[in-house]
Design goal:
- With about 600 residues, the chain is α+β, with helices and mostly antiparallel strands.
- The protein has helices at about 120-125, 195-210, 220-230, 265-275, 280-295, 345-360, 365-380, 400-420, 425-445, 465-470, 480-490, 520-530, 535-545, 570-590, and strands at about 10, 15-20, 25-30, 40, 50-55, 60-65, 75-80, 85-90, 100-120, 130, 140-145, 145-150, 155-160, 160-170, 175-185, 265, 305, 315-320, 330-335, 445, 450, 495, 495-500, 555-560, 565.
- The chain is globular, with a radius of gyration of 25 Å.
- Residues about 595-605 have low confidence and may be disordered.
Amino acid sequence: MALGIEDYALISDCYTGALVGKDGSIDWLCLPRYDSGSVFGALLGTEDHGRWKLAPTDENATMTREYRGSTFVLVTTWTTSTGVVEVIDAMPRGDHRADLVRRVRGVSGEVEMRVDLRMRFAYASSVPWVRQLHDEHHTLQAVAGPDALVMRGIPLKATDHAHEATFTVREGDLVELTLSWYPSHKPVPDPVDVEADLRMAEKWWTDWASTFRHRGAYSDEVLRSLLLLRALTHAETGGVAAAATTSLPEKFGGSRNWDYRYVWLRDASQTLSAMLGHGYKDEVDHWRWWLLRALAGDPVDVQIMYGLSGERFLPEYVVDSLPGYHGASPVRIGNAAATQFQADVIGEVMIALHDARLGGIPENDFSWSLQCALMGQLDKVGARRDQGIWEIRGPARDFTHSRVMVWAAYDRAVRGAEEFGLEGPVAHWRKRRAALRHEIEHRGYDARRNTFTQHFETAEVDASLLQLSQVGFVAPDDPRMLGTVEAIEQDLMHHGFLLRYRSETGLDGLQGTEYPFLACSFWLVEQYARSGRLDAANDLMHRLCDLANDVGMLSEEYSPTSGRQAGNTPQALSHLALVRAADAIARAEGFADELVGGGSPSRRIDATDQ
């Protein structure tokens, strides 16, 4: 059975990533991309759904682990009654290769190690044909349809669709195991140069982290979050996956299980602002070109999400070959939300591209003309009811957050014209911005309770309302915003952390409930910091950061009663919200005035919208 979600660490080559458990088992790996079929799928089933375990045979062995500096080179130290060994796990970055390296080094005494390799392609629906090549590298080749793997390092014995071995490591010994994916119609790839590739991987990540900027508290958490966001960004296309996994449950044993291995415009846009605010302009430009390619064409065809290369067709289906995380079914591949209308996403894109302008990335004819086309599409559809930021599968609504994000789109279009001299129908954009403000303030605000509301037909609140001050619709200390915060604290606080909304209202059209959503609590930290409640901000921030696992990873949600992470992992939105919250605290403490994204002063308030 899979470990707790918080018991896994990500290693990545910026094309895909593997989840390595505290027991030494790699239980999740899709090759060659995050959204490819799984080779190891034990995370969503059992060991027979694919895994690669490397650990001492001593059942009483203890372990500690950490990333080597600012990298994704994972170092696990095992201590047994007979000795100590170190295992290094990494995915070297190489053009058009997908390699996984596991190096065992004897530290002291001697330790007996065991390898258990179970390869299952296409979400455990295909057991490969395996043969031993009998060369000096003990090469094991596995083939099934379009996919092939080669395992090198030590001889393995086949036992009932598994390949196993035991070996003893003494002080000073090195045992190097590698696994390489390649298209089955191509020749077997050359062996990995483990030493050179580990040095290259460590240098690449260290160099990337060396340009990091952050003043104030939580620097370690911010850097690790940015590293995770970089790991989720495809090295060639620039697409940012929302998570490395699919179908990890939002409620243990429940059916709220979704595939997050795709690029949401919302998450990717916020990643742009987070990267820009900490010195990573190259990543911003890379993502902007991904966006321009993905959105190219008729603006009427804009989706809320795409594949890592900008693919539009992401049909959702259920795979029966994986039983689900601890039995939580169904396991879904693809995401039907790709066909939803969510009015907020164009606003997210316009905010991100305006932040890029503020950050010194020049506009070009292609990018501004695309933004103008998006605004033209928003003229046609911006007043439609939608499924909202939470992708509800119930009836469409007039969500207040969605309307505010439409307002934000017009606001950034106006500011592009006013502040940067870009051409467009600015008078029309100003008029639409003012009309939206009037509508929101009269239909999305409950004067009796002094709070903005979840949608225009309810008195319920929603954690997404915390973004109203983030995008500049109201000031953080506006009495209406403070009243909204009070209502959110009263209605959505669950054991000290925020729910997205009250699922028992039936709004989302789904069965069951869910746990607190980590990003929402980080949004509350930001709101506290920006409205002068710095002590409350730091208190909640400390408690949230304590929820990260031993290597700094956060999933989507958290169960306060069981003390477990829940939902897909690592979750880009959780780490994005952490960065924003830390930046807000830094500003409140007098640091980081130079940053652009994350609720900076650049997101000014224009209360008149004239």
